[in-house]
Amino acid sequence: MGTKHPNIDFNILFYPQYTNETGQVICHPGSVFEGIVQVKVAVTMPVHHIKLVFKATERVNYDAMGWEKSKSTDDRLFAVRTVLWGLPSGVNIPQDAWPILDAGEHTFPFVCQMPVINYPPTFHHHLIATAFNMVVSISKAGESSPILSKLIPICFQPIIETIPIKNLHAFTESHRLTSHITTLVSVPRLAYNITDKNQSVPVTVQFTSGHSSDEHFPISQLRVYIKRYYSINYKTFSRNEATMIAHNDYPKLPATCPCTVSMKLALPNQEELPATLSYSPHLTIQYKLVVSVKIRHGPIHVKKKLFDMPIVFGTLPAGTRAPRQLESYSDIVENRASINNKPHFLRPQPRNQNDEEFLPVYDGEGVPPAYLSDLALEDNLNDGHATSITRINTANSTPANSLRLGITG
C-alpha cells in the first residue's frame, strides 16, 4: 500500500527475462535482476531525492499464537537502498535549495545483485510470512513524510540440493502383516525438484505369502500419502502443524495373495509445494512419504504403516551440487549487517538497441497484443506482478547517461 499524491505517479518495472510465465519477478542467491523506476510528475516541484528500497522480512504472527513479542525483535532479513535522483539521504540543506524535478515522465534504470546467501524463501502462511519487496520513496518539499509507491513483491527462491548424487538403488522397507503374509514396499527415489512439472512418486507394494497356495487377502485399504510438517519457533515458543498435501488410495485390492500393487502419487504444483527448509531462524519445513494399510481382524480394521521415510523437495536437478560459496542465512544472521551479506545495487549499463525489448501491455482481457519493436517497459500495476506497458515518451526524461550518474549504489 503506497502513499497517493495528486501530482506524482510511479511504477517499478522489470525486464521480462527476470519474470516467470505469470509475470512474477524471481531471484536466487547470486542472481541479478534489473528494470526501471518510472516517475510521472504533473507539476515542477523541489525534491530532495528519489530513492529505491529493497527489503525483506520474516514475520511471525505473534498475536495469533498468543506469544509475546520482544521489543528488541528485528524481523528484517535485510534492507538496502539506492538514490536514483537528487541528493544523498544524509545531506541536509534548506528546502529552497533542493533540486527541482521537472514536470513530465522520468525513467531511472536500476540493477540489483543478490548475495550468494540462502535467505528463507518467499512464504505466506497465517502464522508466519517471509516477504521480499521493492518500494520507491520520494522526499518532496512541503511533505511531512516521504511519498511511497506501493510495495512490489519479489519472489526469492533459495538453492536447495535435491540429492547430491543420483541414487542407484530403490528405497525399500518390509513388514510382516500376519503370521503368513509379508510385504515389501519399494520407492525409486525420495528427492524431487519442485521446479519440474507434472511429477509423481511411483510406489510398488509386494505382498507375499508363506503358504504354497493362494491365501485369503485380509487387506481392506492401501494408501500412499505425503505429509508436510511446519515447525515455527521463536525463543522458547514452538508451534507445529502437519498437513496431508497429497494422497492416493488404491481403488480395488486383489482378493488373494501373493500379489503386486503399483501406484503413482501425483505431486502438487510448485506454488503449493515449498522446498524443504532447515536454515530459517523461525521456520522449518519437512516432508514424509507414508504407505499404510488396513488389516481386517474379524470385525476390526487395524491400521499399519508399511513405509515412513523423509522425502526432500529441492530446487536443483538431481545430482546437481549447490555452489561451494553458498551460505545459509542461519550462518550469517549474527553478521547480517555486513555489506557482503546484503543485496547490492549496481551501476546500470546502457542497453544496446539489439537487447531484448519489454513486452507490450496486456490487460488480461481478450487476446494479447502484437509484439511491436517500439514497445517496451513492464508494468507492475496488475496484482503486484510485473506485467508490461508500452514505451513511454522520454522527451521530458533525463537521458540514460545522466541517469546512470544518479545511481549511488
From TrEMBL:
Domain of life where this protein originates: Eukaryota
Biological-process GO terms, alphabetical: protein transport
Leader peptide range in chain numbering: none
Annotated ranges, domain Arrestin C-terminal-like: 185-317
Pfam families noted in UniProt: Arrestin_C (PF02752)
Gene3D superfamilies on file: 2.60.40.640
One GO cellular component, as annotated: cytoplasm
Protein name: Arrestin C-terminal-like domain-containing protein
Organism annotation: Parasitella parasitica
Organism phylogeny: Eukaryota, Fungi, Fungi incertae sedis, Mucoromycota, Mucoromycotina
